[in-house]
């Protein structure tokens, strides 16, 4: 069975991980409470992604936190990553599942009701819903859906969901109130002076909301 926790999902950004490398950022963030880590680098070659991914695998070894690779299916397989995340314009989910096999996690981005309705629950494990807000870390993102749009898509979604897109600590409560299983963040951790402290603060906000509801 593919097990994962979407509560605090870190999407690594190479442009922000300067003071701390992506591997260092991931290790510190997981120590602070991050529950999943995604490697996303749209500009990298497959070979470069594989090299970074192997560094991340080593950094996360023994933590139990899954490493997900975005966009590049061949890199995900070569790294022996725990999973793969596909956008609507990437490789079809069915093809990704065939390459990944039954044991790895498969995520899919959804931005519209039509995309949610098209999900094959026998193939995909979770969905990333957004972008909730505009974000400079992904300048080619689709039109932001806002918190109301997030809640609408989460209600329709038959799978666990994680919100993404411009999310900060202040958004933890409304994101969780929407019914999402967690929040994905980039700059709220990547590029912060202390990624562990940033992750811990986010994790505590999530936990506090859950304890009060």
Automatic annotation (TrEMBL):
For 2-[(2R,5Z)-2-carboxy-4-methylthiazol-5(2H)-ylidene]ethyl phosphate, which residues are the binding ones? 135-137, 166, 186-187
Reported EC number(s) for this entry are 2.5.1.3
The protein's UniProt keywords, in alphabetical order, are:
Magnesium, Metal-binding, Thiamine biosynthesis, Transferase
**What are the recorded GO MF terms, alphabetically?**
thiamine-phosphate diphosphorylase activity
Q: In which pathway does it act?
A: Cofactor biosynthesis; thiamine diphosphate biosynthesis; thiamine phosphate from 4-amino-2-methyl-5-diphosphomethylpyrimidine and 4-methyl-5-(2-phosphoethyl)-thiazole: step 1/1
**Catalysed reaction equations from the record:** 2-[(2R,5Z)-2-carboxy-4-methylthiazol-5(2H)-ylidene]ethyl phosphate + 4-amino-2-methyl-5-(diphosphooxymethyl)pyrimidine + 2 H(+) = thiamine phosphate + CO2 + diphosphate; 2-(2-carboxy-4-methylthiazol-5-yl)ethyl phosphate + 4-amino-2-methyl-5-(diphosphooxymethyl)pyrimidine + 2 H(+) = thiamine phosphate + CO2 + diphosphate; 4-methyl-5-(2-phosphooxyethyl)-thiazole + 4-amino-2-methyl-5-(diphosphooxymethyl)pyrimidine + H(+) = thiamine phosphate + diphosphate
Instruction: State its cofactor.
Output: Mg(2+)
Cofactor remark = Binds 1 Mg(2+) ion per subunit.
UniProt keyword Transferase present: yes
A single Pfam family it belongs to is TMP-TENI
What residues does 4-amino-2-methyl-5-(diphosphooxymethyl)pyrimidine bind to? 38-42, 70, 109, 138
Q: Does the keyword rRNA-binding apply?
A: no
Q: Where does Mg(2+) bind?
A: 71, 90
Where in the numbering of this chain does the Thiamine phosphate synthase/TenI domain appear? 8-189
Q: What does this protein do, in the record's words? A: Condenses 4-methyl-5-(beta-hydroxyethyl)thiazole monophosphate (THZ-P) and 2-methyl-4-amino-5-hydroxymethyl pyrimidine pyrophosphate (HMP-PP) to form thiamine monophosphate (TMP).
What family is it from? Answer: Belongs to the thiamine-phosphate synthase family.
Fetch the PANTHER family from UniProt.
Answer: THIAMINE-PHOSPHATE PYROPHOSPHORYLASE (PTHR20857), THIAMINE-PHOSPHATE SYNTHASE (PTHR20857:SF15)
Q: Could you tell me what this protein is called?
A: Thiamine-phosphate synthase
